[in-house]
Design brief:
single chain, 284 residues, Rossmann fold, 7-stranded parallel β-sheet, two-stranded parallel sheet, 12 helices, binds NADP nicotinamide-adenine-dinucleotide phosphate
């Protein structure tokens, strides 16, 4: 029986990848660092280990047919040894990269491009998604506690993608060799400004919420305090500002691969509305 190794299995994309693979009837092995808290379906073979430990990755990849790889760091330090350990066991790797990677110069595109290059001798498929819809959960507290959401660049136009669409493409790629050597640029079906995303969320929960622009300096300080790499924070802020005049592209890869339109932000907002609502206690 086909067995697929999933890294990042407890994450926002990985959980959907695991479920999609189980639904397809294949065996799933997950590399997790806290098996007790993984909360994965009982059918998943959970292997304890750290993705930054090449020996753990090599053990986890032993005997699998393909691997879903994500690299949960802003730095590619140590990735060479990990990719070597992984591909010693399994050549077929579907890597969760980023739309930021430029074909002309992947190495200059940050950690995602560096890892794509490390995989160049493998039987790779690169998934390059844009921003995830789930990132908007960062506004959930403000939705619950007030009627103002603060952010930099409210006019930034984004083609956010539903994480379930990324996972659905990953499952296809993991189960069919015709995707070897393919790079997929994955986006949602439309561009919405960040202010429009807030309006859609407000409609989904039935609450009118205002957007207030935050200065780049304030946001940078908060990001760095939360442990975000300062260079990454600078890059992200400049990128969001650039999207006011040059919104993100919308690609057709999700629709052509899945045979249905990409999921909309409205669908995501309706699925996740409860996370943005004030939590009320039930009456006894
Ligand atoms: N968010 C975006 O807009 C966006 C856009 C393009 C690309 N990406 C890329 O997508 C990836 C993140 O995907 P995601 O949002 O699905 O992940 P996520 O929800 O952030 O979860 C990270 C996953 O990685 C696991 N992990 C973290 N450190 C680990 C370690 N040392 N050893 C083993 N596992 C470890 C976590 O496991 P635990 O349960 O142990 O924490 C979790 O399963 C990143 O590579 C990011 O660069 C994100």
């Amino acid at each position: 029986m086909t067995t697929i190794l999933v890294t990042g299995a407890t994450g926002r994309v990985g959980r959907h990848v695991v479920q999609g693979l189980l639904d397809a009837g294949v065996s799933v092995r997950a590399l997790v660092r806290s098996p007790l808290f993984a909360g994965l379906p009982v059918d998943v073979e959970v292997v304890h280990g750290d993705i930054y430990d090449p020996a753990a990755v090599e053990r986890a990849a032993s005997g699998v047919d393909a691997a879903f790889l994500l690299w949960p760091s802003y730095s590619a330090e140590g990735a060479g040894d990990v990719v070597a350990a992984l591909t010693k066991q399994v050549s077929r790797v579907v890597y969760l990269s980023s739309l930021n990677v430029a074909d002309e110069d992947p190495a200059a595109s940050g950690v995602w491009g560096e890892i794509e290059l490390l995989l160049s001798d493998a039987d790779w498929t690169f998934l390059r998604p844009g921003g995830f819809m789930v990132n908007t959960q960062e506004w959930a507290d403000e939705f619950r506690t007030g009627d103002v959401v603060r952010m930099p660049s409210p006019g930034a136009g984004r083609s956010l993608i539903h994480e379930r669409d990324i996972a659905a493409v990953a499952v296809l790629a993991l189960l069919n060799d015709k995707h070897i050597g393919q790079t997929y640029r994955l986006t949602g079906p439309e561009v919405l400004t960040q202010a429009e995303q807030v309006a859609v969320l407000g409609e989904a929960i039935g609450k009118s919420v205002r957007v207030q622009e935050q200065s780049a300096e304030e946001v940078r300080r908060a990001m760095v305090e939360q442990g975000v790499d300062p260079n990454f924070a600078d890059g992200a802020l400049a990128y969001w500002a650039s999207l006011i005049d040059t919104p993100e592209p919308v690609t057709s890869d999700v629709e052509s691969l899945l045979g249905r339109p990409a999921l909309t932000f409205r669908e995501w907002a309706e699925e996740h509305a409860d996370e943005f609502r004030v939590r009320t206690r039930g009456l006894r």
